[in-house]
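Known limitations

Files may contain more than one protein. Parsers should not assume a single record per file. Below, a two-record file is shown to illustrate correct handling: read the sequence, read the token line, then continue until end of file.
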Amino acid sequence: MKNIFLYPKHDRFYGSPNPYIFDFHRELAKKHRVVNKNAPNIGTLNLFVYFFHSEVFLFNWIENLPEKKFGRLQVAGFVFFLWLVRIFKKKIVWVLHNKGSHHQRDNQQADKVFRLMMRRSDKIITHSESGKSFVEETYPEQAAKVVVILHPISELFPIIDAEKTIDFLIWGSVHRYKGIDKFLNFLATISEEHRFKVRIVGKCFDKTYLKEITSYVNEDIMFTNEILELEEIYRIAQEAKFILFTYNSDTVISSGSLIDSIRMGSTILGPNHGAFKDLSNLSFVKTYENFGDIVECSRFTGTTADQLRSERDVFFKENNWERFIDKVDRVLADL
């Protein structure tokens, strides 16, 4: 058992369909002492409060630190923290979810934190082979630190044999980096013979982008600008032929929404990179190179019910949260 500081704090945004950190805290605490489990959420100040109580600091999305409240001040504090880590020989494990910040890739402070984490991490966990390739190509001197562990999956939802009234369901927070507007613009340019019913479910906090998405809404395209519980998204997914991911950002390595879509028993369409490419060996995960390929993919009639259940069951058995923590344990034992 190790004393571990897990970042970020597991405070769960109400209604959020991405409980990754909440689950991580819960499962890690079954085998280790998570020192900041009940700590107030005071950002990087907790790194100093719990410094001498911790053997290992385990970070997720720390590269987004400059986007937080008092971001520059927190980055300065984080740089000092990394100096203390060297002096007192603490260990750092970094879960590399993305190849940088989705939202501010040109942010010098975010790039600074990213480079520091590459150098100062003792181990780097990534959820797809593309994450490993990214480090090998961009930071080859750090490649030996990288361990690939697939994104963990929670309990599977039962599959319901519902009428498919939606061609493509796009769900999750609506951000520009996801390229939803580009896909809708593509649909507007194709011929009438390729009309598709599209349902978009997710909150858009960018008012300018919200107007852009809303401008495409018509009798075939429905947009629900709300945060829905995952169980409600699951019910909608049962009526969709495909769950579609339109990511056009090369920062994406893995996707919690992809894993939750597997839980829903959906046929998934995603770009041919990152975790989508890794999981394309599954019969219900299809990839595309460009939006034109989506029209061809839409003709896929689906995996048989027995094959879908069998493949999902095997995937869950190999990649559930308990197995994930077992794999993380092997990383911790190697520090």
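...continuing to the second record:
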Amino acid sequence: MFDKLNILTRIIEKIKRFPVTFESMREWIKYENIEISDRTLYRYLKEAEELRMNDGRIITIEGDFNKKTWKFEYDNSVNELKENDIVSFLLLKGFLPNAIAKHRQQHIDKIEEVLFKAQSKSKFEYHLETLRKSIAAHAFGEYDYTGQHIEYIGGFVWAMQHSRKVRLNISGDNETFIGVPMQLLLHKGAVYLMSLDDTSGNKLRTVNLKDVNQFEILTIPFDIRKYEQQYNLELNKRFGVEDNIDENEYDIVLQFPSKSGTIVCNHFWHVSQETIRLPDGKWEMRLSCGINNELINWLIELNETVEILQPKILLDKTLERIDKGLSHIRNQSLKGGI
């Protein structure tokens, strides 16, 4: 059993490390086997707010959906930023996808204003002005999301923070499912809402933000620790984010000529990738994952610079896709389209 002083001390230590909500604290006391009621927990949080401490104080913030967050506000916590610190912020700001940045410009400006006021001795404004246009993200291939899409991002983040399941309606098939929100993933210029489908045995669902027709945060809580391992396992089975053609994982072996292999094999493609330089100068890449359209399309893009050594099913699927493309072009030619 923990006495009141011990529990209160541990609560304060936790808040000092990271802001907390009542829901996250409730999960934490269960995990720590601290046997107190919700009412007692709330009273302890209120008492922690009223305590005077040498290094700062606990404050509360009213967030979206009237949810309260407790955080520790340190005295003299702002240290002078160095040049690399400032450039790191500008890199984060500059490389943010344009489709998202343009809808959040006022929030970015607010952060810059706070940093400018707090860091007047660090030449923050000098670096900001000199590098404002020198660091940028190219919008090539990015989807142009709407303000509604950006609101969905905010809701999805809130659901992850507060461990609440979501209901998603996907355009096209007009499909609706209840999901456990796991991650927001930026992939090839598009934002994906990564969820485990609660209505089909926690199957991994990768939903492109542009395909979300309706979004709703439910009152159903979940414990993220019960889902993290399965999520990582399912995601690592995929080359990229698309669904696999079957449930199998394949030992994939690819070979590249010396010049193109030096380029391809020095890029990140999958967590399992292993590359070796062969005695004849060629490169060999090994992957352990499923087969999906994203992998097949990637191999087609590499064209004659890649040789598929195994498995045979990957070679067959790639040739099948190429044959379909050539057949389509021939049909266009016969119809006078080319």
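Parsers that stop after the first record will miss the second one. For reference, the second record is described as follows. The radius of gyration is 26 Å.
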